[in-house]
Amino acid sequence: MRIDNSTILITGGASGIGLALAQRFVRAGSTVVVCGRRQEQLDQAQRECPGLRVVQCDVSVEAERAALVERVTREFPALNVLVNNAGIQNRPPPLREPQDWSRHRSEIAINLEAPMHLSMLLIPHLIKQGSPAIVNVTSGLAFVPIAFMPTYCATKAALHSFTLSLRYQLKDSPVRVIEVVPPAVNTDLGGKGLHDAGVPLDEYADHAVAQIEKGALEFGYQFSEKGRLSSREELDQAFTALNERLAKGR
Predict the structure, then answer these.
(1) Would the pTM of this model clear 0.85, i.e. be above it?
(2) Domain-by-domain residue ranges, the chain?
(3) What pLDDT is attached to residue 248?
(4) What is the per-residue pLDDT across 115-149, written as a single tens digit (0 to 9) for each?
(5) Is the CA virtual torsion 94, 99, 102, 108 positive or negative?
(6) Which member of 152, 168, 204, 221 is catalytic?
């Protein structure tokens, strides 16, 4: 994937990892369009990154996804890269307690349904472009889930699985399918202050861009790199150790 002469759509690109990637792609010389739900956040992203193009869109809504694809392919016909980055992270009460299903449904719609559908909608367009790519942002929690965030972790595991199938189905096409597997990164995902101990955002974004430029198709960093390369036995041990440690700290 080229980062210096591409036209890139990033979902959830007004903050966090999405914005950090967008800033680096713009500096490299690409045209970058980001979408998000909140116009004020998009406006702030434009102030931080002059040259960034923004589109307000709620990717959890099927009709808005279709409208987004129609608009960006019309206004940016050279679009050749989709970065499925939008995601939310909820911390519901224990599953033995009553649940607000709408919150679980929202996580599934944004974290899994949206990247699957947007990929399907854009493949016919991307396949005709030069150096096309689909980049799916999953999580180290796809491999070692945190039990008190079951739906978030499940969506990321499912997106990892979908990415494998997508890459296989497109193996004879020009579309490269890339999976970015972040560890905990210091962003506001899930709420302010919850990831302060995570990897610094700029450090992670620099690493991710470097791996993309090298041509990596799947890569993690620190915890997530260890997880994605672990054996089944190692993953089971890591799951137990992580969740017992977190349970003691809650």
Answers:
(1) yes
(2) 7-249
(3) 85
(4) 999 999 999 999 999 999 999 999 999 999 999 99
(5) positive
(6) 152
From the list 138, 148, 145, 157, the residue with the least C-alpha distance to 220 is 138
CATH superfamily for 7-249 is NAD(P)-binding Rossmann-like Domain (3.40.50.720)
- 168 annotated active-site: no
Rounded distance, CA 31 to CA 13, Å? 13
Please, are residues 211 and 225 in contact by the beta-carbon 8 Å criterion?
Answer: no
Indicate the residue type of 178. I
C-alpha dihedral (186, 192, 197, 198), degrees to nearest 10: -30
Residues near 147 by beta carbon (within 8 Å), at least 6 away in sequence: 243
Question: Does residue 156 register a pLDDT over 80?
Answer: yes
The three-state DSSP-derived secondary structure of the chain is CCCCCCEEEEECCCCHHHHHHHHHHHHHCCEEEEEECCHHHHHHHHHHCCCCEEEECCCCCHHHHHHHHHHHHHHCCCCCEEEECCCCCCCCCCCCCCCCHHHHHHHHHHHHHHHHHHHHHHHHHHCCCCCCEEEEECCHHHCCCCCCCHHHHHHHHHHHHHHHHHHHHCCCCCCEEEEECCCCECCCCCCCCCCCCCECHHHHHHHHHHHHHHCCCEECCCHHHHHHCCCHHHHHHHHHHHHHHHHHHC
3-state per-residue secondary structure call for 20-74 = HHHHHHHHHCCEEEEEECCHHHHHHHHHHCCCCEEEECCCCCHHHHHHHHHHHHH
Check if the beta carbon of residue 36 is closer than 8 Å to that of residue 57: yes
